[in-house]
Design brief:
- This protein has 222 residues and is α/β, with parallel strands linked by helices.
- It is 50% helix and 14% strand.
- It has a 6-stranded mixed β-sheet, covered by helices on one side.
- It is globular, with a radius of gyration of 20 Å.
Length: 222
């Protein structure tokens, strides 16, 4: 079963496994729980983005933020390692309302694009009873375009496929660098098998991505 990650506004949840991802760790509202500062936006580009509100177009300003947040924060992290460090059903917290622009949505979409996992924006309506909220879906496409600006896609259209393929390549390179032409031992053979499996998964991820893209085109061409 794939891991699920939740996101929410501080005020919208009281129970569960909370982790703050805002720059001030939630101090503005007196939050005293766990925090993950590596996911907080950098103050320098946040200030530029904030100062540009109503001075440049919202779309241009949003792209500026997404590009900087990806290149200066998310790009430095491995999504799989980050996910493994989080308990299942972790709730990532920040200040903005569910439908508003917020970097917690970018974290969710980043995990979805690279790992094909489920993420949900939530609100607690009763003790431990949650309701799924809408999040700004347009941010996912902006983030995808930003990632593809300099990510090695290895000829794939799907970021998930490219990520899996790169994992296979890295495994094979590490074996070749350590082996130096000697007969493969059992461990190295196992790694090659894992790499082959990743290549198969990459092809499957690409097929899934193209099928979903095709279905969207058909839907809007009716």
């Amino acid at each position: 079963m794939k891991q699920i990650i939740f996101t929410a506004k501080y005020d919208n949840v009281k129970n569960g496994n909370h982790i703050s991802v805002s720059g001030d760790r939630g101090k503005k509202i007196g939050y005293e729980g766990n925090s993950l500062s590596i996911l907080a936006p950098k103050l320098e580009f946040w200030k530029v983005w904030h100062d540009n509100i109503n001075k440049i177009s919202e779309q241009e300003n949003t792209i500026y933020y997404v590009r900087n947040y990806y290149n200066r924060v998310l790009k430095n992290l491995d999504p799989e390692i980050l996910l493994e460090s989080l308990p299942n059903k972790t709730i990532l917290l920040c200040y903005e309302d569910s439908k508003d622009f917020c970097h917690r949505h970018l974290i969710a979409f980043w995990l979805e694009l690279f790992l094909d996992i489920e993420t949900y924006e939530i609100k607690e309506v009763e003790s431990y009873k949650i309701q799924i909220q809408e999040r700004p879906k347009y941010l996912k496409k902006i983030l995808e375009n930003v990632i593809k600006e300099d990510y090695n896609m290895h000829g794939f259209n799907s970021i998930r496929a490219a990520y899996l393929f790169e994992g296979a390549e890295q495994l094979e390179r590490s074996i070749e660098e350590s082996n130096k032409g000697i007969v493969l031992n059992d461990y190295e053979c196992e790694l090659y098998t894992i790499a082959a499996g990743l290549r198969v998964e990459a092809d499957e991820a690409e097929t899934k991505y193209l099928k979903e893209k095709n279905n969207k085109v058909k839907k809007y061409n009716i």
